[in-house]
Amino acid sequence: MSRQPSRPRKEKRIIVALDFADEAGALRLLDQLDPAKCRAKIGKELFTACGPRLLRRVHERGFEIFLDLKFHDIPNTVAGAVGAAAGLPGVWMLNVHASGGGAMLEAAMAAAGAVQGRSRPRLVGVTVLTSLNDGDLAQMGLAAGSARDQVLRLARLCAGAGLDGLVCSAAEAALLRRELGPEMLLVTPGIRRQEDSPGDQKRVMGPAEAIAAGADYLVVGRPIARAKDPATALETFRSEIHGNFPNLS
Ligand code: C5P
Questions:
Q1: CATH code assigned at 40
Q2: Which of 41, 53, 90, 231 is a Cys-bridge partner for 17, taking CB atoms 3.0 to 4.6 Å apart?
Q3: CB of 172 closer than 6 A to ligand 1?
Q4: Is the pLDDT of residue 74 over 70?
Q5: How far apart are the C-alpha atoms of 41 and 70, rounded to whole Å?
Q6: Choice among 10, 70, 202, 228 that is catalytic
Q7: Within a domain: 3
Q8: What average pLDDT does range 71-86 have in this prediction?
Q9: Tens digit of each residue's pLDDT (9 = 90 or more) over 141-160
Q10: Which residue's CA is the nearest one to ligand 1's atom 14?
Q11: Does the residue 4 lie in any domain?
């Protein structure tokens, strides 16, 4: 029987995005990081290039994995994919597109819950990609409201289907926390310290600010992965969080 994951009140908040084209780059970074201090996110590029073998390597190094494959298909297919992903080594969190609809979300949740012998992975929904604005949504026939309304609508769909949480921009975290209550996990990318370059992120937020807005987990890529000293960069993110919220962990 799978077990319910517990709330992340005293946990590692930072998820380092392994945005690399190959295994060597990803493992070189992980060899410099402490799995007691962060988790690892594997996305479409790295997974497509390296497959499940890489997950085993990452898991062997002690890291819990957010498998960021954003499944979106008919319910039966997504259920199969989520079931397969949930059984891979080290998968602690995975995600689906909320716009796949209520039946797809429920099927995904049932498949995540069916994992045997260990705590089931957390399943989080992606609402509106942060790369889309109101104009893009109108072009796609979703002109009835703003991107913000669409985020809320899809977030409620995820909550209704029993998902554990959402991937959202830190700018949406306070609204979603207010609307959905304390239980939904909020996972926010686009996190930067004062000294970090935003890169292609348009709206960024500091780590402590994002936690204050209601985020549970912060996805951080380049500011740690491309730092000269990734371990020190991770430490500064952690101390910004824990300096402002000493009771977090
Ligand atoms: O390097 P950076 O910190 O910008 O990386 C952010 C990570 O979060 C990347 O892996 C990116 O694909 C992911 N992400 C994002 N915005 C979203 C969803 C995921 O930046 N809305």
A1: 3.20.20.70
A2: 41
A3: no
A4: yes
A5: 12
A6: 70
A7: no
A8: 98
A9: 886 678 889 999 999 999 99
A10: 189
A11: no
Q: Structural domain of residue 120, as residue ranges?
A: 14-244
Cα separation values, 121 from 5, 12, 71, Å = 7, 16, 15
On whether residue 9 sits in a domain, the answer given is no
Instruction: Give residue-wise pLDDT tens across range 32-73.
Output: 999 999 999 999 999 999 999 999 999 999 999 999 999 999
Nearest CA owner, ligand 1 atom 19 = 189
pLDDT digits (tens, 9 = 90+) for 86-122: 999 999 999 999 999 999 999 999 999 998 878 899 9
Find out whether the beta carbon of 43 lies less than 6 Å from any atom of ligand 1. Answer: yes
Q: Is 202 a catalytic residue?
A: no
Note whether 104 and 73 are within 8 A (CB): yes
- Mean pLDDT for 157-182 is 96
Ligand 1 centroid to residue 222 C-alpha, Å: 9
Query: Could you tell me which residues come within 8 angstroms of residue 182 by beta carbon, excluding any fewer than 6 positions away?
Result: none
Return the ligand 1 atom nearest residue 168 CA.
Answer: 21
Three-class DSSP category at 19: coil
